[in-house]
Amino acid sequence: MLLRLSFTSPFARKVRLAAAVTGLPLDLEAADTMDPADSMRTQNPLGKIPILVTDDGETFYDSRVICAYLDHLAGGGRLVPSEPAARFATLKLEALADGLTDAGILILYESRFRPVERHDDKWLEHQRGKIARTLAVLEAAPPPADGPITIDKISLACALGFFDFRYEGAWRADHPKLVAWQAAFAATCPGFAETAPRL
After folding, report:
1. What is the pLDDT of residues 42-77, one digit of tens each?
2. 8 A C-beta contact, residue 6 and residue 12
3. pTM of the model
4. pLDDT in tens, 104-130
5. Fewer CB in 10 Å around end: N or C, the chain?
């Protein structure tokens, strides 16, 4: 299977870690989301990565769908538990972690695509509020560092890695429990170091 990606994307990293945990091999091919001629726009009409292209040419997107597909290929219950209470707790934390990443990306895009004089301070503060509240909730009760590596933990680790990469780890000073959690996760998750974002 082929994964179209950017090597800086936290959502592509999420898929790569899910594949490593489930033991499913992926070929990697960089995509340029800003190039109208890149074939990724025919693979996903939204023009977003990551995109999984199966051996028979079927495409899956976005990262949540791709990871669910990988879990299915691995027999189910590997990334998302089958037992209802655990399943929905996992999906809830995955959504929270992905939302944390989304807020960080929106702040990044504001600076990337709009000149400074057109930055919307109210919009930026709205995103910063999401980040602050989410980090506070997670600091108060980080997920267990032991046990199976599930998609919620993968998503959280990728979110924190994104903030390390794009925001110089500014979150770390006020969130020691999350710092410890990330270190413990990194020590046990296959492929964590290899998938670190790079330009």
Report:
1. 999 999 999 999 999 999 999 999 999 999 999 999
2. yes
3. 0.95
4. 999 999 888 788 888 889 999 999 999
5. C
Question: Tokens standing for 30?
Answer: 């960089």
Backbone angles phi, psi at 165, to 5 degrees: -75, -45
3-state SS class at 172: helix
Alpha carbon distances (Å) from 14 to 39, 163, 179: 22, 14, 18
How many CB atoms neighbour CB 183 within 10 A? 10
Instruction: Please give the Cα distance from 87 to 44 (Å, whole number).
Output: 28
